[in-house]
Amino acid sequence: MAYVALSEAEKTYILHGVEDDFRCDGRSRRDYRPMELETGLVSNASGSARLRLANTDILVGVKTEIDVPNPLTPEFGKLEFFVDCSANATPEFEGRGGSDLAQELVLSLQNAYESPLAFDYRTLCLIPGQQCWKLYIDILILECGGNLHDAVSLAAKAALFNTKLPRVTATLLDAGITDLIISDNPYDCTRIGIETVPLLVTVCKIGDYCLVDPSAEEEVCSTVSVVVSVSMRNGEPFLSGTHLTGGGAMHRDTMRNCLQLGLSIGEHLNQLLTKMLKLEQERVGPKRPKTVGFLK
Amino acid sequence: MQTLREFTRKTKRGNILKIVREHYLRDDIGCGSDLCRQCFQNEVYQLTSQHEIRSTLFKCPHYLVLDTNVVLDQIDVLEEDVLRNVVVLSTVLNEVKHKSSSIYKRFNELIHDRTRNFYVFVNEHHKDTYADREPDETANDRNDRAIRLATKWYDNHLQASQSPKDLQRTGRAATRVILLTDDAGNRAKAEAEGILVSSAAEYVKSLEDFPLLVDKLSHKTFENEKKGLPQYPPHLSMKELLEGLRQKKLLQGAFQASRENYLEGSVNVEQFEKGILIQGRESLNRAVDGDLVAVELLPEEEWSAPSEIVLEEKNVYADEVPSEERAEDEKDMLKQVRAAATSAERTPTGRIVGIVRRKWRQYCGILQPSLIEDTNRHIFVPADRKIPRIRIETRQAAKLLNQRIIVTIDTWPRNSRYPHGHFVRSLGPLGDMATENEVILLEHDVPHCKFSDEVLSFLPQMPWTITEEDYAKRVDLRDLYICSVDPPGCTDIDDALHCRELPNGNLEVGVHIADVSHFIRPGNALDKEAGARGTTVYLVGKRIDMVPELLSSNLCSLVGGVERFAFSCVWEVDQEANVLGKRFHKSVIKSKRAMTYEEAQVIIDDSTQQNEIAKSLRNLNRLAKILKKRRMDNGALVLASPEIRFQVDSETHEPLEVEVKQMRETNSMVEEFMLLANITVAEHIATEFSECAVLRRHPRPPPTNFDPLVKAARYQGFQVDIESGLELSYSLDKCVKADNPYFNTMIRILTTRCMMQAVYFISGSLQKEEFFHYGLAAPIYTHFTSPIRRYSDIMVHRLLAASIGADSTYAQLLERKSNEELCHNLNYRHKMAQYAGRASVALNTHLFFRGKEEDEEGYVLFVRKNALQVLIPKYGLEGTLYLKSDKEGKDGLERTKSEIVFISMRRITPSDAATNVQHEKLIFRLVKPYIKGFSVETESDKTDAQPAATPPPPKKTKKDKKKK
């Protein structure tokens, strides 16, 4: 984890700010920093998104491939996460420096996406037991400004929303073997439903209080945080996984408060993200967008 | 400027990938017009105002933009030197490339012809004419839109360059751009966008100065054609076909029409050894010989057997609806099929449901005279009997009636009995030797154009002399008594022999082969041309050389009394023809004499001649006999084919006389030593170059191939053993009939037809056991002795020269892949050259019999259900004797049909008669044995009969009795 060196006085200052519900940058404990999101900017990928949350910068690309389903779950497609911590983000990531962090992020994402209720793996199935889509979600961390879990999950969800799978029709051969035919129209695609796709909300405990979207400095002050993954189902937020980070422990009541805070924040975040994605899609239309911010 | 093109692709492993390519758009692509003052242009303008074409449709000067369908369908119109100032869009060029590589090649030649003013405009990379694919737009629609966009841009661009003031001053109308398209949808859209547009047919018809160009238009639909009922079942769509093939419900294969029965054919499919039989017009479903088709296999109870009927299509006329005739044909077929259904010979039968790829080419043939005068619609009869008649439209029928013409097929709609096509060009008057030879060469894909200047530039400079350096490099054999023995009139002598006694009592025998590889250096244009031609093609009275004449008849040819370069293969042998030693080297020789087989024979037989040449010939002859005997004992086969020679008139090139080729001892003498040389060289290069030696093998035929031979021999009471070459050879020797001296030859002719084709191959591509040459019973073989007329020999020469250090190697020599490709080409050319040679003999036979009627003795080769395949040894002529010639004959024949099966290989005396000049067909009629109503009447028999006619053998009379 990127380490920010803080003096005791600075830490105390942050702690007091949290206690007063008035953080260093003027936010309350339930506030997020401003975000910038753009989708479909990597033309080589099937879907892509780039999210900038204050100083945290994430680029996600989704690649597709045809694979054979796991025999235990013949009707499920596959997802695979990969996180790359770019040495651009911080010099500590150089070499294998970022692999622990990357591992942690992959695990928490896998944990959140694991339940079929959180992600409908059936939509990725082409022919049960024979062929399915496998999505490679490649996440690149370009800058670390705290709250990586949230940023990564938001960007991943946006990239999935942007993913276009070529429309495939299957023909049945003898002996039950099937063959796939792809549509020759590059605009003829299927999309992935993202309604239930979970978001991660990091609830960070500083002093006696819990807050969301910690900045890098706040993360240093925190003894423990819980990453809450929130999946929406029929307009209701559900918990699809939790994950503790940091060295400390948590009291049962604090834990309950944290989860509740995470759920309510997650629900709100989800609504906003979905709304913004739809707005962007309407604005851009079906044709390949001219990228605006990044990678122009 | 840059944009991206995205598409999805399926990989071989079945993965689906999204592929994105960068696509650069430029602003410096010129429009190629000399009117333009804006574009950056090269000095050379392709579109000039000098070439104007007058059209009643568009009065102004104009440029043409072609749609892809126009290029694909009307390439023959484009090839005529009429249309100029044509803008070729890169979109169109790419589409043509994908759809048809042959048309693309022809089109490309047009584009590169500077005099034609075709300008390629790279619209796909021009910033103003690039069309990005819209959502919900098919690839085709996008291309159409790109074409319209470019046309529109051109028109606007040119108009901007032509100021009205200038036009007023010069009095010229503004140059416009016209889109030619045959796609109705595209045309409508273009009209809506304000583009000048026309269909190709309308435009060509509107040209005032070239009325005959209309003939070359491809016709998808004929005007005022009666909307007849569909005569064929519909073809499946491409999608259905591919799906069916993938699901293995349909089978894919090349369609082969039957030469004998136009209502029958077969499709070669991998799993089926004999291919799938297709019978009847509806099952054939518009497939033309060579097409790649999809077949549906019929259920087993509907399987049928090959009808063995010889059925030729009768004349039909363009305007007739030949329903009765057709019904009769079909009825006959059905009857046969039903009869066959009970027999055990049923083979997999299917019907064609769709065409995967057409293999239509251009066909030679003649126009059938039409019943109605002044009609434009005609029927074209192709020279190849496997090709159906083609319906064409022409305004010059009267001129073309007695000419050989070339026609191409455009389409074959469901409601037309025949495919639709159009006239391409005329080859010349019918029956003219030059025209007929041209037909043979075209039909057999023989490259026969003159050697290009580039090729000729690699010939040695004349006068050519042997330098001191050459002498130093080569072994000097000028003192030896070397002579050559060849057929009379041979000018490309590629082999010579010598034999001398050595002091130790042994003999030294040398075979000297023309050193062609000295003159043809690898990789140059001359070498490439020779490699592409592969072989010299011999037609009656005409030779199409593989190498230019300077080499073939002069510098390489080992003519008598002149110093020539040779590649020598020299053996030391003892008196019993056992090879004791061998060596190869390049040499300089001076042939003492070039003889014909006959001359050599005379010298050998004349014991008064005791000079060196005579002695050496006698020694060679003696050794050859020993060699031959040894070869026969090994199981080499003596095969026969009816070979004849024509005496050709030197002026008119018409055949004067026919003679069967005679085999003399000297033929066999030369042959033996050539075989020995070939085998020796083959062994040598195969050990030196185990991976890339060019060899020749003759695979052992599968036992089923021998069925007709074994059957035929059994009818005659002989047992033919086909277990091995040796046993076959022995049993063939035993097939002798005292009363019929030709019988053994007949059996051998039949055996020849059972054989497989011998092929060239690369040693690395096969196992050593497969190198075997079945016919010669040699474990390894190659061609070394005729480099003037075969390219394979040149390759062998190069390998051999490299192995003995006489010549340098080069990379290609040792490259297996390119050599394999070369071998494929050589095999194909070799086969085609053989067919062309045979076709030429057949043609000359026709010419020879024109207007003649003769009685000759013939033999039955095969028995078909309604015809006999007859061979006349005197002329080496094969023909068909139809049994059901009229109704009266039918009675007698129906009863004797079963008998006739047994007379396979018995003599029949047909009378030859050439009747229909237009179709040049030989007609065979039975003279003896006499069958009432079928044979020629006895009176005429008596008057026409030649004194040479032999008395009928006893068996025949027996049969006559039975009949009575």
From TrEMBL, chain A:
Record domain Exoribonuclease phosphorolytic: where: 32-166, 197-264
Reading the lineage from the top rank, the first entry is: Eukaryota
Q: Which CDD domains match?
A: RNase_PH_RRP42
Q: Name one GO cellular component term.
A: cytoplasmic exosome (RNase complex)
Annotated localization:
Cytoplasm; Nucleus, Nucleolus
Q: Name one GO biological process term.
A: TRAMP-dependent tRNA surveillance pathway
InterPro entries the record matches: ExoRNase_PH_dom1 (IPR001247), ExoRNase_PH_dom2 (IPR015847), ExoRNase_PH_dom2_sf (IPR036345), Exosome_comp_Rrp42_subfam (IPR050590), PNPase/RNase_PH_dom_sf (IPR027408), Ribosomal_Su5_D2-typ_SF (IPR020568)
Q: Which GO terms describe its molecular function?
A: mRNA 3'-UTR AU-rich region binding
- Which key words tag this protein in UniProt? Cytoplasm, Exosome
By its UniProt entry, which Pfam families does this protein fall under? RNase_PH, RNase_PH_C
Family, as annotated: Belongs to the RNase PH family.
Protein name, entry field: Ribosomal RNA-processing protein 42
Automatic annotation (TrEMBL), chain B:
- Provide a GO CC annotation, any one: nucleolus
Q: Which UniProt keywords apply?
A: Cytoplasm, Endonuclease, Exonuclease, Exosome, Hydrolase, Nuclease, Nucleus, RNA-binding, rRNA processing
Q: Where is the RNB domain?
A: 474-806
Q: Which family does it belong to?
A: Belongs to the RNR ribonuclease family.
PIN domain location is 62-188
| Cell compartments where the protein resides | Cytoplasm; Nucleus, Nucleolus
Q: Which GO terms describe its molecular function?
A: 3'-5'-RNA exonuclease activity; endonuclease activity; RNA binding
- Highest lineage ranks of the organism? Eukaryota, Metazoa, Ecdysozoa, Arthropoda, Hexapoda
Which residue windows does the record flag with biased composition (Basic residues)?
A: 955-964
Cofactor list: Mg(2+)
For this protein, the record's CDD domains field holds: PIN_Rrp44-like
Query: What PANTHER family does this protein map onto?
Result: EXOSOME COMPLEX EXONUCLEASE RRP44, RIBONUCLEASE
Region feature (Disordered): 937-964
Name of the protein described by the UniProt record = Protein DIS3 homolog
The GO biological-process annotations, alphabetized, read as: CUT catabolic process; nuclear mRNA surveillance of mRNA 3'-end processing; rRNA catabolic process; rRNA processing
Main site of residence? Answer: cytoplasm
